[in-house]
Design a protein that fits this description.
six-stranded parallel sheet; 25 strands; ten-stranded mixed sheet; alpha/beta; binds beta-D-glucopyranose spirohydantoin; Rossmann fold
């Protein structure tokens, strides 16, 4: 689809000339409607291409306006017209609310993947849910996180979506399964189920200057229309029960909560999604048997795993295929990405819940499991214990990861280390049984969004140096390597970073009244708040520097601003306590005259995609300090690398691959290695008290948590103290503290030699093209989806 620039400009001008009201929001809606109109009238369906469907409970695109205009090559034209009519383009763009239909990395990855699928010209479709409320808005009141509902759809509606009621689907829950026999076949019918209508809303996804238009479909749950004999009260309750399915996004990351509503959300997504795929396919294409050559389905973590039994149900119960035929189709179509090794994030659904909500699906899972266990016994005759490791259903719970592995032709982790641990530890029995299914696909990020859009200064500079080709082929960023000793280039790189720091500083000042030291090192830690991500380790180092400011002020040679942005899951008390501690320490440090001009701490509330777009280009230091083996990949690490920050990090997730590219000479690495962490976890020989007693710095810092010198929630601070010193320090903070401090000293020393620092930044940018999600998607396309 090409939109002619002149036609677009004319059409937009025509609408803006008499626009009423003359608000940025109104202008935004005008632009979006025009883009949608043009794209619908030009839509180029590619029915002969294999279609990929990416099922995810979360998509976190943030704002679409700039991405869409950039991809359609209309950004400059649009700005021009806006300015002609006295609109401030940035104001118009920023009036779009973030679509925050995801928690963090997993949902953001899904958004980058959609962008790359379109950019590479593949026919890719996202399948998600249209939550009425996205991830909560965070406020900090009295050092406590307060969660407010996120109304991402404004009164005038969401600019980019189109409701498609004519494509609605019925999803059925509950009821009882009735069996009957026809000829030689058992058939299954659901009696008296609860019926819920799934209405699709489509959001167009544009490829980068290549005419490809894909889509993200988000489903909204609605009740069936009232019948004439239903009472008002009964109908109100039915309606409520239906609509609650897509009311809220579960605001948790890396933690699984076995709530019935979550199960209903998952089934709702997969049932609506796969039914609609089949309807569409059978209208336009060939036979059921050909599905695997025409369709690929990727499940983003185990959340959409029920697609496996639901797909079986449709093929066997509704399309009369034999079990074997159906299984072969499902298995050749579905593949599964694992995104975490954390035990608490591995989904296990109680049998009773699944039986009650999805009785027919439960029978199918049992049958899949029966055949699978028979196969295991037949092949390996493994002992019972290992069959217990391999069975989908044990002790009245259904292991979703096992179901996903058994029903998928390919299983991948999201960074090399993660995929290795997945194969050799977490899913070991399965990788022995199905070795050919396991693979790795290291994550990536859309360089269009995170460099072209977020950092126009750097983008233009790079283009002036090495031409345009890197935009389509980001690996060409390595062409920058020839400038690593060019003083003029390094000066300009530094100047650009400085301007991006100023841009952020102005925003922060406008929003919070805090004046950031613009010439300090911007040390950035932005991600969900979680014990394993170790924001607390960062803070312990900050507190240590605070002590230094008092004891040995000369030791602080370069001013530093520590910037935190993080939301804690509302039910994750420990994470919320860490936020309290950060904000308490921040307010005291920022008011302490002794720290003035030396260190500063900011906790920026309501961290989200739009904020990230401002913070990331301004980062000097990227904090990627998870306990080794815990962060599956990380993607913030890649974004900051691409924007010329240096990383301080552990050998975890994709950090390892970053150091493979730039070597540890250009990366501040520290801390225990994954194997060491895993060994300690197995042998239980780590005692944080030993470290504590040997390290005076730690003692001094940690005593503040219990001696009342910090203002705020003393119970919270004491709890943090005990978690570290007395209760085992689950994430090895004390153990890694010493080497973290050392690495942070190296950061300071290096910053004192700006040339070397800048050179390292340029080297990092040069190698960051590998982390474009275009590379990741090209690998999925070739090796998993066979596009
Ligand atoms: C996550 C991991 O924690 C991240 O390391 C990873 O980058 C991301 C995308 O693969 O997936 N898993 C998860 O449950 N939330 C995540 O952000």
């Amino acid at each position: 689809m090409t939109i002619n620039k002149d036609r677009f400009k004319k059409a937009l001008s025509k609408q803006l000339v008499n626009a009423e009201p003359r608000t940025p929001q109104h202008a935004l809606h005008t632009i979006a409607s025009l883009v949608k109109e043009f794209s619908e009238s030009n839509e180029s369906k590619s029915p002969h291409k294999k279609q990929v469907y990416y099922f995810s409970m979360e998509f976190l695109p943030g704002r679409f306006i700039e991405t869409n205009l950039l991809n359609l090559d209309l950004l400059d034209s649009c700005k021009e017209v806006l300015e002609t009519f006295q609109y401030e383009p940035t104001e118009v763009f920023q009036s779009e609310l973030d679509a925050a239909l995801g928690n963090g990395g997993l949902g953001r990855l899904a958004a980058c993947f959609l962008d790359s699928l379109a950019a590479l010209g593949y026919s890719g479709h996202g399948m998600g849910l249209r939550y009425q409320y996205g991830l909560f808005k965070q406020k900090i009141n009295n050092q406590q996180q307060v969660e407010l509902p996120d109304q991402w759809v404004s009164d005038s509606g969401y600019a980019w979506e189109a409701r498609k009621p004519d494509q609605a689907i019925v999803v059925r829950f509950g009821g009882s399964v009735h069996m009957s026999q026809h000829n030689d076949r058992l058939t299954f019918h659901l009696h008296n189920p609860e019926e819920i209508i799934a209405v699709p809303y489509q959001i167009p996804i544009f490829g980068y200057k290549n005419n490809q238009v894909n889509d993200l479909t988000i489903w909204r749950a609605e009740s069936t229309p009232a019948t004439s004999d239903i009472t008002f009260e009964a109908y109100a309750s039915t309606k409520r029960k239906a609509e609650e399915i897509t009311e809220f996004l579960y605001p948790d990351d890396s933690h699984y909560d076995g709530k019935v509503l979550r199960l209903r959300q998952q089934y709702f997504l997969v049932s609506a999604g796969i039914q609609s795929i089949l309807v569409d396919y059978l209208q336009n294409e060939g036979t059921l048997q050909e599905i695997p050559s025409k369709i690929a389905i990727q499940i983003n973590d185990t959340h959409p795993t029920l697609i496996i039994p639901e797909f079986m149900r449709l093929l066997v119960d509704e399309h009369d295929l034999s079990w074997e035929e159906a299984w072969s189709i499902v298995l050749s179509t579905v593949s599964y990405t694992n995104h975490t090794l954390m035990n608490e994030a591995l989904e296990k659904w109680p049998v009773f819940l699944v039986k009650e909500q999805l009785p027919r699906i439960f029978l199918i899972i049992e049958e899949i499991n029966r055949r699978h266990c028979l196969d295991v016994e037949y092949r390996g005759l493994e002992e019972w214990e290992s069959l217990n490791d391999l069975s989908i259903v044990t002790d009245d719970v259904i292991h979703m990861a096992r179901l996903a592995v058994i029903g998928s032709h390919t299983i991948n982790g999201v960074a090399k280390l993660h995929s290795t641990i997945l194969k050799d530890e977490l899913l070991k029995s399965f990788s022995i049984r199905f070795p050919e299914r396991f693979t790795n696909k290291t994550n990536g990020i859309s360089h269009r969004q995170w460099l072209l859009n977020a950092n126009p200064l750097l983008t233009n500079f790079i283009t002036r140096l090495i031409g345009e080709s890197w935009k389509e082929n980001p690996v060409n960023l390595t062409k920058l390597l020839k400038y690593t000793d060019d003083d003029a280039v390094l000066d300009e790189l530094h100047a650009i970073k400085q301007q991006n720091k100023q841009r952020l500083a102005h925003k922060v000042f406008a929003k919070t009244g805090h004046q950031i030291m613009e010439h300090s090192i911007f040390d950035v830690h932005i991600k969900r708040l979680h014990g394993y991500k170790r924001q607390l380790l960062n803070l312990l180092h900050v507190m240590y520097l605070w002590d230094l400011c008092h004891d040995k002020p000369d030791a602080i040679k370069v001013p530093r601003t520590f910037i935190f942005g993080a939301k804690a899951a509302p039910g994750y008390l420990y994470a919320k306590r860490i936020i309290s501690l950060i904000t308490s320490v921040a307010s005291q440090i920022n008011e302490d005259p002794v720290t003035k001009g030396k260190i500063q701490v900011l906790f920026l509330p309501n961290y989200n995609v739009s904020q990230a777009e401002l913070i990331i280009p301004a980062a000097d230091i990227s904090e990627q300090i998870s306990t080794a083996s815990k962060e599956a990949s990380g993607t913030g690490n890649m974004k900051m690398m691409m924007n010329g920050a240096l990383t301080i990090g552990t050998m975890d997730g994709a950090n390892i691959e970053m150091t493979d590219l730039v070597s540890t000479d250009h990366f501040f690495d520290f801390g225990l290695r994954a194997q060491e962490v895993l060994a300690y976890e197995q042998n239980g020989q780590y005692d944080p008290r030993e470290v504590f007693h040997q390290d005076r710095r730690l003692q001094k810092v940690l005593h503040r948590l219990v001696n009342g010198s910090l203002k705020g929630d003393q119970v919270a601070f004491q709890d943090i103290y005990y978690s570290l010193v007395e209760n085992g320090d689950e994430y090895f903070l004390l153990k890694d503290f010493g080497s973290y401090v050392q690495a942070q000293n190296q950061v300071q020393e290096l910053y004192l030699t700006p040339r070397t620092w800048q050179k390292k930044c340029l080297i990092n940018i040069s190698h960051s093209g590998y982390f474009s999600s275009d590379r990741t998607i090209a690998e999925y396309a070739k090796e998993i989806w066979h596009l």
